[in-house]
Amino acid sequence: MYTSVVRLQNVFGFFTTVAFVVAAFIAASDFLTERAPIVRTLKTTSVQVVRGRPHYYSSKKEEYAVINFSLDADLSSLFTWNTKQVFVYVTAEWPAADHAKTNATNEAVIWDTIITSPSADHLANIGPVAMKKLRKSAGGKSIDPNRGKLSLKNQRHKYKITHPSGKLAMTDNVTLRLHYNVQPWVGLLTWDQDVDYGYWKALKNGVSKRFKLPAIKEKKPASAGAR
Ligand SMILES: *[C@@H]1O[C@H](CO)[C@@H](O)[C@H](O)[C@H]1NC(C)=O
Ligand SMILES: *[C@@H]1O[C@H](CO)[C@@H](O)[C@H](O)[C@H]1NC(C)=O
Ligand SMILES: *[C@@H]1O[C@H](CO)[C@@H](O)[C@H](O)[C@H]1NC(C)=O
């Protein structure tokens, strides 16, 4: 016997099934869109190692590295109609002390940013101006092809590099590496990859040349006799 509750359940079940299938199609469509991110330049412009307190809450003095870098990359192919935002970050990586035995690598984020897709920009800030923009952009515009192009020159680090041992000076074989994380409207988060995967190509040229951290740069005392 059909009651209204059972009927309601059937209708609800039908709509959730439809919604699920549509979402699955949207998520699957990502795999049919080419991703070919490329890095043209990734290099350090200045590297320093300083001994001091890296953060205001640091209780002890330790060595930390500060790196300025230049980055020229084209990540625009990561932006499709299903892209909500792309999280981009640069890490410094170097072999751990016991690398020969364990292959372990030290990794520290030095800079990051979030690039929102044009359609997400309007949702991020609500107000009369944003509403006007939203209406204007609703006129069947495609995705801004400039989105995802990064061109940074002598960019200052956001985060200082530290190591639990407190030692960093003269560290050899350090590389900078660009990473990204694509956050879709529907589907799973995906990260940069080392191998091609169907239409998704590996990030090209995403690692800098090896470099060596310099010796500690002495900080000048603030004034004579202060200490
Ligand atoms: C370290 O990496 C090399 C090359 O990838 C591999 O041959 C070796 O087995 C790895 N060693 C360990 C301990 O994982
Ligand atoms: C690092 O970059 C910042 C901002 O671009 C700049 O002000 C600073 O002088 C740079 N540092 C060095 C050592 O070049
Ligand atoms: C840096 O890498 C080179 C080439 O792989 C290697 O010969 C050298 O021993 C490495 N240096 C350190 C300190 O790991």
From TrEMBL:
Which GO annotations describe the biological process of this protein? Answer: protein targeting to ER; signal peptide processing
Source organism per entry reads Neurospora hispaniola
Give me the Gene Ontology terms describing cellular component: signal peptidase complex
Taking the first listed entry, what is the main subcellular location of this protein, grouped into a coarse class? endoplasmic reticulum
Q: Which portions of this protein are annotated as coiled-coil regions?
A: none
List membrane-spanning regions.
12-33
Its placement in the membrane is given as: Single-pass type II membrane protein
Q: Where in the cell is it found?
A: Endoplasmic reticulum membrane
Q: Which InterPro entries match?
A: SPC3
Pfam families listed in its UniProt record: SPC22 (PF04573)
Q: What is the lineage of its organism?
A: Eukaryota, Fungi, Dikarya, Ascomycota, Pezizomycotina
What UniProt keywords apply to this chain's record, in alphabetical order? Endoplasmic reticulum, Membrane, Signal-anchor, Transmembrane, Transmembrane helix
Q: Which family does it belong to?
A: Belongs to the SPCS3 family.
Q: What does this protein do?
A: Essential component of the signal peptidase complex (SPC) which catalyzes the cleavage of N-terminal signal sequences from nascent proteins as they are translocated into the lumen of the endoplasmic reticulum. Essential for the SPC catalytic activity, possibly by stabilizing and positioning the active center of the complex close to the lumenal surface. Essential for viability.
State what protein this is by name.
Answer: Signal peptidase subunit 3
